[in-house]
Amino acid sequence: MNGKEAITRILRHETVSRPGWIPFAGIHAGKLKGYNATEVYSDEDKLFESLMEVNKVYNPDGQVLLFDLQLEAEILGCEIVWTKNNPPCVTGSPLEETDEIPTRMISKSDGRLPMVINAARRMKKAVGDKTALYGLLCGPFTLATHLRGTKFFRQLRKDPDYVRKLLAYTTEIALQMCQLYLDEGVDVIVPVDPVVSQISMDHFETYLSEPYKRIFERIRVHNAFSSFFVCGNATHIIELMCKSGPDSISIDENVNMAEAKKITDRYNVVIGGNIPLTTIMLFGTQMDNMKATIDLIDRLGDCTKNVIIAPGCDMPYDTPIENTIAASHAVLQTEKAREMVANYELSDIGVEVELPDYERLKKPLVEAFLLDPLACAACTYMLAVAMDAQKHFGDKIEVVEYRYNNLTDISRTKKMAVKQLPSLYINGKLQYSSLIPNLDDLIREVEEVM
Q: Do 337 and 329 contact (CB within 8 A), yes or no?
């Protein structure tokens, strides 16, 4: 049984001898060949070389072509900023000052789509018989947020008609992207919608249940598989995600995977995740990664059906190669790896940090605890709302961001006992946990402590 056969059997809900293994090596693929994020996501040859190196070094059952949620946004007029160690990030929204609903559709010749299509064809020819290829697209809600900006969160309550119209448009774009991948014979189509974790169950049911049913039905009738990927704390919507009809869902470290599996098992949906990205993959040792992966497998219990092990999201660019190899070994050779880490304790990567004196602040302090606003869309928009509040109040308040991709901020996050990322604190008190606030609400809450 090769990797593609394993993924196929898992997604058909058959019993297998081990869980599946998918390293989410997006920009990290470039690291393996010495290319930065900008190079690997803008040059077809460099992308293909990097993907082939991932296939050789990490021995994946399934492999993403690229992890870029800005492909469609860039084509549709969003301003994009590029960095060397992160995927491109949306910094400007074309609908920020207008209520117009776009009508433009996308074609295979737009933007960087020719690069993606050609890379898919080359990967299909090179490894498509042994590795399941995953085609990722930006989910309708996140794409709508890219196009509209932070105003979109205000309109969830104030202007539901506009929200429905914009989501109807972005759903059509998602269906176009699905078809693009289907035409190339990509095995698993994955709408990635990180901002969905930041909305309520009611809003999901009101705005997204039907669009996602359409998306997954389109994929199914073309005899391909689907996966629904929501980053952040998606705990409250796991069941709704299952009800929308995907073959599998993917989650990150904000979600207790063992508890989520109890829900996905009821709906016979495959669950994938969720090796911690920074504390284990980026900053941990090789033994930490093997131990953490074994611990995850053990927590899940029966992994002979409906389980795929993967990083919680797109791997950080600088993830040590040996760490991912260790995680791969733990999935593919579980019993041997279990013997190797039998008496091993995970490393303590903390550093000393000093918290603000919240009782003696000179002005309100808004603290944004984030994964990485350049790589995490939910973090991008939570920070953007906080900065909108900063613009409203000027120097009457202070806004500070902490990123869970450096040791100091990781230690600060732990010392504050932050349970979910992203989160917003005001004067040391949790105000929003994995929930992007409406700007009007945030302004009112800041005023209450002034």
A: yes
Burial class (CB in 10 A: 0-12, 13-18, 19+), 395: exposed
d(CA 205, CA 216): 16
Inform me whether the pLDDT recorded for 420 exceeds 90: no
* Percentage with pLDDT > 90 across the chain: 91
User: What residue ranges define each of the domains in the chain, with the CATH number in brackets?
Assistant: 3-340 (3.20.20.210), 358-449 (3.40.30.10)
Q: Residue 158 gets which letter from DSSP?
A: H
pLDDT reported for residue 430 = 95
What is the rounded distance in angstroms from the CA atom of residue 373 to the CA atom of residue 190? 22
Q: What is the dihedral of CA 282, 21, 137, 388, to 10 degrees?
A: -30
Q: Backbone dihedral region of 427: left (phi > 0), alpha (psi from -120 to 50 degrees) or beta? A: left
Per-residue pLDDT reduced to its tens digit, 376-399: 888 889 999 999 999 999 999 999
Neighbours of 362 (CB within 10 A): 6
Output DSSP code: residue 9.
H
Would you say residue 13 has pLDDT above 90? yes
Q: What pTM does this model have?
A: 0.91
Q: How far is CA 353 from CA 374, 413, 415, 416, 427, in A?
A: 24, 10, 8, 10, 17
CA distances from 226 to 7, 11, 44, 132, 180 (A): 12, 9, 25, 12, 14
Helix extents (H) in 100-159: 113-127, 140-148, 151-158
- What is the pLDDT averaged over residues 76-86? 95
